[in-house]
Structure formats: C-alpha cells, structure tokens
Amino acid sequence: MIDVRVQTAPLDPAATIAALSAGRDDVGAVVTFTGFVRADDALIALTLEHYPAMTERALATIAVEADARWPLTGGSVVHRVGRMLPGEAIVTVAVASAHRAAAFNAAAFLMDWLKTQAPFWKAEERAGGTSWVAAKPIDDIAAARWHNA
Amino acid sequence: MIDVRVQTAPLDPAATIAALSAGRDDVGAVVTFTGFVRADDALIALTLEHYPAMTERALATIAVEADARWPLTGGSVVHRVGRMLPGEAIVTVAVASAHRAAAFNAAAFLMDWLKTQAPFWKAEERAGGTSWVAAKPIDDIAAARWHNA
Amino acid sequence: MIDLVYFAWVRERIGVDGEALPLPSGVATVADLLDWLATRSPAHAAALIDRAAIRVAVDQAFAGVDAAVADGAEVAIFPPVTGG
Amino acid sequence: MIDLVYFAWVRERIGVDGEALPLPSGVATVADLLDWLATRSPAHAAALIDRAAIRVAVDQAFAGVDAAVADGAEVAIFPPVTGG
Q1: ipTM value of the model?
Q2: Which among B121, B125, B140 is the top mutation candidate for probing chain D, defined by the most D β-carbons within 10 Å of its own β-carbon?
Q3: DSSP characters for A60-74?
Q4: Nearest 5 degrees, angle CA D60-CA D63-CA D69?
Q5: What is the spatial distance between Cα C55 and Cα C64, in angstroms, rounded to a whole number?
Q6: Its pTM surpasses 0.90
Q7: Which is nearest to C53 in space by CA: C19, C16, C82?
Q8: Which other chains touch chain B, taking contact as 3+ CB pairs less than 8 Å apart?
C-alpha cells in the first residue's frame, strides 16, 4: 500500500523513510528519491501549482499501478505545492520491498510518472520575473520505458 | 566526492541523506538505498564479516568509478559490520546529483557493486545454528549490466 | 453547463481560474470545445493558439482531442505537466 | 613468506584466521598456491575442495587462478562475497 499526499508544509524525507521500516522485519530494501529546488541561473523561488481534484485521483491510480507491478511492502509519495526556496524538497518518493530491484524500479517508475502524468506545474521566480517551466522531452522518453515493461 | 565508511555502530540513513543536501542549492536529486535485515525463516541475527584492508581499497575504487560515470554532487556509502538484528540497517547508499537519472543509476550501480565486488560475507543465525549465505547468480547478472554501460 | 478550469500559463493568459459556461450545440469533443473557446475573446485565442502545447483533462482524467465532452463535465485546460 | 588470510567458511574450515608460510619453490600462481595449500592438512583440503566456490585476492585485489603470487604478498582466500 502506497500512501500519497500533497502538502504545502515542508517535507520530512527522514520521517517518510523511517515510517516504512520502523517495527518491520520483512522489509529488506528501502529506496527513496527526494527532489530539491536548485538555484540554477539565480533562481529566487519555485512555485508549484496543481489541480487538486485530479491530483488525488491520479496519485491514487499510480500507487495502485506500482503495487500491481512490484511486490512492495509499503511506499509513500509526498509532493509539496506552493512557493519554495532553493535547497527545499519538492517531492519525496519512498518504496519498500523485500528485495532491492523492486524498490529501485518502483521508485524510478513513480518519479517518471510524477514528471509526466501528475497535474503539477512549476513556475520559476527570478529577478527579471516569473516564468513557467517547459516540459522536457527526456521525461516523456523516461516514462515511455515502462509501457512495455 | 563519495564518502565511504565501514562501522559496527547502527546506521543513521536520515543523517546520511541530510548531509548531502544541507546548505546546498545545486543538488536537484538525492536517491538512497537502505538494506535491512529480514527475519526470513525465523532468522535471529545476521553477522557481517569483512576483510578490512581490502574493503577500504575496494570502496575507494568504486567511489571514484561512480564519480567518473555520473555528474554527482556528493555521495555516501556506509556499510555496517558485526552482528545485527532483524529490522536493523545493513547498508546505506546515498547519491546526490543535479538530475534524477544520474542519482538513480549511480545508487543502483553502487549497490550492484557492493553485492558482487566488496569483501563482505553474511552469516545467518537461526535456532538450528549459523550458516553462511550463498552468493546469488542474480546479483552477478545485475552487476554485469554496468560493464558495457 | 460545463465547468472549465485553467492552470499555469493557460490560466494566466485567459485571466481567470475557470468559468462555467453553457455547452453550445455542435460542441461534442475536446477539439470542438477548444475551437469554440478560442473564439470567445482575444485572451482565450492567445491562450489556445498553440494546440501542441495544450493538454486537457475531462472529469479529472487526461483526454485526447477526440474525447467526448458532455453537459455537466469538468474540463481542465493546461500546459504539459512539470511536477516531480 | 606469504601472508595468507581466510574469511567466512574458508576461515572456519581451515580453523585459523590466517597463517604466514614460506613460499615453496614451484608455487608461482594462485592455482599453484591453492594446490599446495590443499596438501597441508585435511582441514585445508576440505576448505579448498570446491574450487568454483573459492575466490582469491592478492594484495587486496581480486585475482584469477593464473595471477602471479610473489614472496611477500598478502593472499586472501574466501567464498564469493555476499555483502550489501
């Protein structure tokens, strides 16, 4: 079962990881991904907008998909929205399994999906103004590898 | 630069992750792997033996290799040795990069290498006695994928 | 009526978060809807001019240009997503 | 002399962590060394009987059976590794 959550509060990746292994003796591997705001080109802040009604449905769908593809003992996807500063975490994905291959693959799958199928949009704030981030073709290529897997 | 360490003290994956991103604004992605002792078949404890003189050399070599293959902003490999109980962490690998693909690949590479090339041996303690874990062919297959990558 | 909701630069260019509009006769698909919306104001036209950069969700699920749009639907219009 | 060090079940079967031995004439490679060691005692023979399950490091680097073994080397003998 993968828990999904969207929040404006700062993320706590350590707590997310601890929750997947605490008190368990059947978890052999936990893989986590945490994405952070980078200060590229003098970025001042990043604002994440989302489509709340769709986000909930979409996150729930992908969580079920990941559970169906790999034998997971637990997982968590927490995405932050609102305005955040360089160095702050945007998203944490954590996946637990008995073995490492399932955990690595499920974490990569969830991230590829978040990048291409979840209704979030990033706006970059710099001294010269605010601009929307363009989608990257490489993210679509990364996501496509799961279609036949 | 990837820090490598072998210790008998319990691991602290959260601290390892925090150290890679704290105070940084150039880190976009941190991927971590933590391996835990599973209580399979009523396992009581797992004891990790290693070859200290070789471990240091081997870990340093693979850290340089990972740095050469991917544009990493930092990394950490901490492997525990000695006797540990179900639910306790055996190893934590954490890798930071500007982008997620490098972080995911470097973390998987380091784990595949640790499983097949680092001089550690696991002994499983059960009510009936202690036995050495056999190497798994699947780990060699996983490691082989990096030879031509 | 259909509930239209806009995000990111689609929202900014149109100038509102969303709007509830009566569904005109003859608008049966997402493509029909985009064509009709683009005629409503210069702001709508500017927001929708590059169709390759427009994504649509009908009732919170991604929908192609041939997908049906029925009365009572919630239709979201936005650029390609950039989360994660 | 060569410094021999043993790990895991190789160590347990031979019964010692390691031993320093004079390198006999005629022992030039890892294969030669394993053949000679196996003649030293029934415990050595038992530990080394399945050569497919034996791995060797010379001076802390993995070495194949054809690798050279010179006087003063540290030679480690152990089963396939199982860390991580």
Answers
A1: 0.92
A2: B121
A3: HHHHHHHHHHS-EEE
A4: 85
A5: 8
A6: yes
A7: C82
A8: A, D
